[in-house]
């Protein structure tokens, strides 16, 4: 099925798909852009958190040059952070930094400096190294590390060390130009994203970024089994990343052993199924999305209670013989909601109503002194603040 048929099938306005095989890149574009024009091979799509791999690449260059030690305390470079926090923690999302810290620090060249300072002064209840918890904030700190050790704004370092040497033409490094650099918010074409991937496959020094650092990531329904230094690790030696950016989604899968890679960039927030079909066709992917059991087990008392992150207090409870997750906003950025769930395996629950990405999985992770779950995990960890009812 061609890309034009796929975007019609999944009601996606516009998309690009690029495939790297045998060192060559083929690409296809279809649909319309957000401005109403035709999507072409040169159209730039926001790639969201796929930016994190670019940040990890810059960090590794600094390591290779002897300017950064991944296991040295970050506070040696950026004063104010706890001495137990390292750059390796940040690259592997083990830093204990909530993903959703927002500060009113403006949009200038000093945005990362101000953000890192505010983040260092904030409260962080989860100690570094305790649990995997996906963190945009942590990668913003890495972006600031790149600035400090390079003596230049992050987007200038990115352009000078990666974009220009590779001769990339569609990469926009200052999209939004706020606190996102280092974590998300670049734009590029699918073809040029795969040129960047080809750099990783050709440069032996970058292979270390794909080595397993976190062997067991809590199940959150994404198919991710582990984590490298920036890379998500999937089944059968596949690595990749996903990006979300204001109504757009981007998907990347790489098979290093065969030198194959696929990039799917879209201008829709509801494009997970389209990407999955592309990966199944090109990579013969065997990923099976999770779904609720027809006769799930009961929610255990050790699972129930209230868990907290930066945006919400989330209560897992049973009401009228049904289990629900109740989200209570802690800031004006959150929105109250209820999600009905059922038991999913030994230590997780799953939503009974699918979202555009499929069924949401929430893992119960760790154990406190009373034998209760310590964290509620859906990619990022929320920590327990109350006992079960």
From TrEMBL:
Q: Which residues form the Beta-lactamase-related domain?
A: 5-272
Which Gene3D superfamilies does this chain map to? DD-peptidase/beta-lactamase superfamily
InterPro entries hit by this protein: AmpC-like (IPR050491), Beta-lactam-related (IPR001466), Beta-lactam/transpept-like (IPR012338)
**Highest rank taxon of the organism:** Bacteria
* Pfam families per UniProt: Beta-lactamase
Record protein name field = CubicO group peptidase, beta-lactamase class C family
């Amino acid at each position: 099925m061609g890309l034009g048929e796929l975007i019609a099938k999944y009601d996606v306005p516009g998309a690009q798909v690029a495939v790297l095989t045998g060192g060559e890149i083929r690409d296809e574009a279809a649909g319309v852009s957000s401005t109403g024009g035709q999507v072409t091979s040169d159209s730039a799509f926001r790639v969201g958190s796929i930016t994190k791999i670019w940040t990890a690449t810059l960090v590794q260059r600094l390591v290779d040059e002897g300017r950064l030690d991944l296991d040295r305390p970050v506070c040696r470079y950026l004063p104010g952070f706890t001495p137990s926090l390292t750059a390796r923690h940040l690259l592997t999302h083990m830093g204990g930094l909530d993903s959703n810290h927002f500060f009113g620090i403006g949009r200038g060249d000093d945005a990362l400096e101000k953000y890192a300072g505010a983040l260092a002064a904030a409260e962080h209840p989860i100690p570094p190294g305790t649990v995997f918890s996906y963190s945009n904030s942590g990668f913003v700190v890495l972006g600031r590390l790149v600035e400090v050790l390079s003596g230049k704004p992050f987007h200038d370092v990115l352009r000078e060390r990666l974009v220009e040497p590779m001769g990339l033409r569609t990469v926009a490094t200052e999209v939004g130009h706020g606190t996102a650099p280092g974590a998300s918010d670049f734009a590029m074409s699918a073809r040029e994203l795969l040129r960047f991937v080809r750099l990783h496959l050709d440069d032996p020094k970058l292979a270390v970024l794909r080595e397993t650092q976190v062997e067991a990531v809590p199940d959150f329904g994404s198919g991710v089994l582990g984590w490298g230094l920036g890379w998500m690790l999937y089944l059968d030696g596949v690595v990749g990343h996903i990006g979300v950016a204001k109504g757009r989604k981007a998907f990347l899968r790489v098979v290093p052993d065969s030198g194959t890679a696929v990039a799917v960039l879209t201008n829709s927030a509801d494009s997970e199924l389209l990407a999955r079909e592309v990966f199944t066709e090109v990579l013969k992917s065997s990923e099976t999305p999770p779904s609720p059991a027809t006769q799930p087990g009961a929610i255990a008392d050790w699972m129930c209670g209230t868990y907290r992150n930066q945006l919400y207090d989330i209560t897992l409870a049973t009401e009228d013989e049904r289990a629900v997750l109740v989200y209570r906003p802690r800031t004006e950025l959150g929105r109250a909601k209820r999600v009905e769930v059922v038991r999913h395996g030994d230590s997780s629950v799953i939503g009974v109503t699918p979202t555009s990405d499929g069924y949401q999985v929430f893992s119960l992770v760790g154990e406190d002194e009373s034998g209760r779950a310590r964290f509620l995990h859906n990619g990022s960890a929320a920590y327990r603040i109350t006992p079960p009812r």
